[in-house]
Amino acid sequence: MPSNLLVQPPADGVRLITLHRPQALNALSTELLAELATELDAAERDEHTRAVIITGSRKAFAAGADVNEMAERDLVGILNDPRVSHWQRIAAFSKPLIAAVNGYALGGGCELVMCADIVIAGSDARFGQPEINLGIIPGAGGTQRLLRAVGKPLAMQMVLSGEAIDARHALQAGLVSEVTEPELTVERALQVARAIAAKAPLAVRLAKEALLKAQDTDLATGLRFERHAFTLLAGTADRNEGIRAFQEKRPARFLGQ
Ligand code: HXC
């Protein structure tokens, strides 16, 4: 049983994971990250889970890496940091991942948000990379993914000054997909997740992979991948079902085949 997470088993294909370390504003300790990676691995294996939501509390999605834990690590400890592989497992999750964010998403918290595919933010959310205040820099994608998400000037401003931005600014910059009233964040994420969970699983999986390709390949390679994925899906039963259901004016029943 995880001790830093609350995990709701999948309902309607959606699994909800709540970061729960209230005494430290959900700071991402090594233990919490290991638990999160393990839960995502379980969700990856579970055919009933079609989408996962990660959320935190009203005050904090996550206030970053655990600074007290960081204080105990020397150079060798950092070179052998087990958190690196936890982060890799989290970032490699292949099913749709939605972050429902209220309050602080700072440092590793903001980096966790950027591992998600869709980000629903409460209007009270704040996103920042304050590592520079500690004499360090982001270490879990906060320079690479942030620049790709919001562009160079704003990424530079956030990482070099440590200043956070609010939800409206994050929406305008492309860091989040939607802003809601704070009390509706998880509900809205659930709506989106349920909609995704009802689609053809193979198409969802390949759509995510194709969209992610756009971030790290040149256009010609990305277009080639899209064409291959599109062709592959032409051989699926779910494609036949989707088209037949449209013609028969009824909802499709996708089986993941
Ligand atoms: C450990 C933390 C913490 C953190 C908060 N707490 N953030 N503990 N690590 N990142 C603890 C506080 O020590 C405090 O514990 C309790 O949570 C409540 O926090 P307060 O500071 O009292 O709350 P508030 O005054 O409302 O301020 C909220 C805050 C501030 C602005 C978010 O807590 C803050 O600046 N936190 C640190 C943010 C940060 O620098 N994050 C980046 C970390 S570096 P007590 O016991 O005193 O009540 C990073 C690198 C990632 O993320 C690299 C990945 C490999």
From TrEMBL:
Gene3D superfamilies for the chain: 2-enoyl-CoA Hydratase, Chain A, domain 1, Lyase 2-enoyl-coa Hydratase, Chain A, domain 2
EC primary class: lyase
EC number: 4.2.1.17
SUPFAM superfamilies membership: ClpP/crotonase (SSF52096)
Keywords: Lyase
CDD domains in the record: crotonase-like (cd06558)
Lyase among keywords: yes
UniProt-recorded Gene Ontology molecular function terms: enoyl-CoA hydratase activity
UniProt similarity note: Belongs to the enoyl-CoA hydratase/isomerase family.
Protein name: 2,3-dehydroadipyl-CoA hydratase PaaF
Organism: Pseudomonas sichuanensis
Gene of this entry: paaF
